[in-house]
Specification:
Largest sheet of chain B: 6 strands, mixed
Oligomer: heterodimer
Structural class of chain A: mainly beta
Radius of gyration of chain B: 14 Å
Strand content of chain B: over 45%
Shape of chain A: globular
Number of strands of chain A: 11
Distance between the termini of chain B: 41 Å
Order of helices and strands of chain B: EEEEEEEEEEEE
Largest interface: A-B, 28 and 28 residues
Distance between the termini of chain A: 37 Å
Structural class of chain B: mainly beta
Radius of gyration of chain A: 13 Å
Helix content of chain A: under 10%
Shape of chain B: globular
Helix content of chain B: under 10%
Order of helices and strands of chain A: EEEEEEEEEEE
Number of helices of chain A: 0
Chain lengths: 114, 113
């Protein structure tokens, strides 16, 4: 049973560019959440998708957008990249995320913006 | 809003020493509490969780008890090993917030032989 997978593993972009990160949830899971983890800090919640709709959103600008597909996989898009967007982006999946449900995290995509 | 505060690190211990990493939280509802571990270059792994007051989560010799009266969820292990060296994150999941997780800043543990 494959766990949460993310692609690519590493990415280098320049300021102003756009990037798309991809996530496949653990088999049987229908909810995907995205987190940004800056160096030396804890993950910060970006948004959560369930049934192809954005259900929750953290304090991130509209430059951060996402999508969930019918097979529950998800994409995170970031437009007009800033140096401060450099971070590890983590995807987490769960079954209809409620308090107490365990989220399973992928290995992350490390984004460097130059 | 919700917040999680962890003791500042880094923490360096000798093998077989006792470990405590403090964690306190602020939440609007009745959250579930979690400890995650992150090894270098990897994502987060759930270490243990507790979903209601006085519950004790345990795994691999680690324990933490959900203390509602002190809003705390301190992580403990009686005898650490070199392989426990990692970054540990305390987190909460609030049903009022739709289950999204709020994390502390992490505590780096180094265990020396």
């Amino acid at each position: 049973d494959a766990g949460v997978t993310q692609s690519p593993t590493h990415l280098i972009k320049t300021r102003g560019q756009q990037v798309t990160l991809r996530c496949s949830p653990k088999s049987g899971h229908d909810t995907v959440s995205w987190y940004q983890q800056a160096l030396g800090q804890g993950p910060q919640f970006i948004f959560q998708y369930y049934e192809e709709e954005e259900r929750q959103r953290g304090n991130f600008p509209d430059r951060f957008s996402g999508h969930q597909f019918p097979n529950y996989s998800s994409e995170l898009n970031v437009n007009a990249l800033l140096l401060g967007d450099s971070a590890l982006y983590l995807c987490a999946s769960s079954l209809e995320l409620l308090s107490g449900e365990t989220q399973y995290f992928g290995p992350g995509t490390r984004l460097l913006v130059l | 809003g919700n917040s999680v505060t962890q003791m500042e690190g880094p923490v360096t211990l000798s093998e077989e020493a006792f470990l405590t990493i403090n964690c306190t939280y602020t939440a609007t509802g009745y959250p579930s509490l979690f400890w995650y571990v992150q090894y270098p270059g990897e994502g987060l792994q759930l270490l243990l969780k507790a979903t209601k007051a006085d519950d004790k989560g345990s795994n691999k010799g680690f324990e933490a008890t959900y203390r509602k009266e002190t809003t705390s969820f301190h992580l403990e292990k009686g005898s650490v090993q070199v392989s426990d060296s990692a970054v540990y994150f305390c987190a909460l999941s609030d049903p009022i917030g739709g289950g999204k997780s709020t994390f502390g800043d992490g505590t780096t543990l180094t265990v020396k032989p």
